[in-house]
Design brief:
single chain, 150 residues, mainly alpha, elongated
Length: 150
């Protein structure tokens, strides 16, 4: 008389010994990389087109921006330009137009430029940033990459 062993249908069956093994999965980021991603997510601020237009008005509107706000205005315009540049080149399925690329490239040295100590030169930097930002935001709105502020 022979004994028969019943094996449940969901029991794990090992592959044959001569079959190549699949490498074990490892996460794409280590702990430091995950912390970096978390910090970037926590510090991320969505684009507010209304704020962009408010800062553009401050920089290139009817009034010269006050000296007290020029440094912070330049920083905000840099951030707007960086966000808009990222939006322009973010999606490979919808590549940026030649004009968008030209504006993105034109904005890189402006974003890296130090804020001059002289008030008039700082206003000049703010206005150069504002003109590039204005052109880029208009291109993105026209191409339906972003929606116009209400």
């Amino acid at each position: 008389m022979s004994l028969t062993v019943l094996v449940p249908e969901n029991d794990v069956v090992l592959p044959p010994a001569d079959e190549p093994r699949t490498p074990q999965w490892s996460p794409p980021l280590d702990a430091d990389g995950l912390w970096s991603v978390l910090e970037r997510i926590k510090n991320w601020k969505p684009l507010d087109v209304g704020d962009v237009f408010d800062d553009l008005d401050t920089a290139i509107g009817d009034q010269t921006p006050p000296a007290a706000v020029t440094d912070t205005l330049v920083d905000r315009l840099r951030n707007h330009l960086k966000q808009l540049s990222n939006i322009a080149v973010a999606d490979e399925q919808y590549p940026p137009t030649a004009e968008m690329l030209r504006l993105v490239v034109r904005g890189v040295p402006l974003r890296e430029e130090c804020v001059p100590a002289d008030y008039q030169q700082a206003v000049g930097l703010a206005r150069r940033l504002a003109f590039v930002t204005s052109d880029l935001v208009e291109e993105l709105i026209e191409a339906h990459y972003i929606e116009e502020a209400e």
